Amino acid sequence: MGGSQKEMDQLRLIRSPNIGPVSYRQLMARFGSAQAALEALPDLIRRGGGKQAVLANEAAIAREFQLAQALGARHVFIEDADYPYLLSQLENAPPVICVKGNLALLARPAVALVGARNASAGACQFARQLAFELGQMGLSVVSGLARGIDAAAHAGSLEGGTVAVIAGGIDVVYPPENHTLQDAIAARGLLIAEQPPGTEPRARHFPYRNRIIAGASAGTVVIEAAPKSGSLITARLAVEAGREVMAIPGSPLDPRSRGCNQLIREGAILVQNASEIAELISPLDNRMLAPSVQNRPAITVMADDSSQTERSAVIKLMSMTYVSVDELVRQSGSSQATVQMVLLEIELAGKLERGAGGKVRLVA
Q1: 184: exposed, middle or buried (C-beta count within 10 Å: 0-12, 13-18, 19+)?
Q2: Which residues of the chain have pLDDT under 50?
Q3: What predicted TM-score, i.e. pTM, was given to this entire model?
Q4: Tens of pLDDT along 77-87?
Q5: b vs e for 7-29, b when ≥16 Cβ sit within 10 Å of the residue's Cβ?
Q6: Pick the CATH number of 100-289 from 3.40.1190.20, 2.60.410.10, 3.40.50.450, 2.30.260.10
């Protein structure tokens, strides 16, 4: 037993090479359905300078649905009414997430608690207590199920409502010592994975996981973090998403506190307890009380086609350095719709990479 034909088509489109979150939504907006988009892909790839289209294997897609169901999990697509509303507001929101547990935990205000894997005992105790108090206030606590602060935050909010976003598949435990905690979260909280079941986490998966942590939350709190840690990446992603960023100050003598102190110096809000956090995110709560599939960020309506002249003009302006789409529109003299169509075509051909802030570049 697998998904419906519509869901099969959606997942097949998502899992096909060179289809990212932005291109998926552009294709759905342009063609109206995943089936129609799949049928159009060969011609789009050819126009972008690519060779033969390679689509995701239908049998593999059916197996993914079956494995998720066998694990007690399910796929939730961005088009679905129960897809987390705040997460859907990201420009690069994952088109599908695999979930296990109580998805309603993200229908209420949520706070991300993140921090160092090698956190001090005192910081872990503080994170656990803070998470417990936030849960008692009716807030869900979101984290990444890593060692240290993440694990402490999940343990503290297990009763009040905890959400773990994992880098690999929904059935993969990382780190191994969190096996019992991950099982408990699946039973009493919520597990979220963007990668297919069975996927072992790789370094490239963690920034994608971090954007979900930040995007699903009204605010992000950092508790101990080194200056170049993944926790600061999550904080930056929260800023880009227009969410509150908060930090717990620490001793300047402890390298694990320098990232938090740096965030405060750069404008993050210093917080010391659960009440301050709840007060700061309360203005965002109303965005979560009226979720609607109709309130997704707008997708530019693309041109029906792009001429070779227009395509060449846009590509000539690009390099391996990121540039904004607006700048390409301005310098090419083409419409936004036409430029977006050109970018989609060369992305599908494997020649374009999208970065933060909606910027794009050519790949080598």
Answers
A1: middle
A2: 285, 287-289, 292-294
A3: 0.91
A4: 999 999 999 99
A5: bbbbbbbbbbebbbbbbbbbbbe
A6: 3.40.50.450
